[in-house]
Amino acid sequence: MPAHGRDNNKRKREIAGKFGANEQDMGSTKVQVALLTERINHLTSIYASSPRSPLARGLLMLVGRRRRFLDYLRRRDLEGYRALIKELGLRK
Fold this sequence. Notes:
By secondary structure, the protein is an all-alpha fold. The protein contains four helices and no strands.
């Protein structure tokens, strides 16, 4: 995931188009989970290469936020929840 600029906005629109109703649907729960997952994966790769990085706390906060979104989605739309975690590869 690029750090900034047009590439980042383009990637966000792609994710919104894939998981949301359209490219402008940035607020739906599924899109939020997908965006958080992308950020978490990006930070995890950085953290793995430098274990003493101060990113650990922020990474844990993002994981917690994603968990709350997933809990909400599971309560509201169980089938959507199952499809999303399967597509994002969140469960083993």
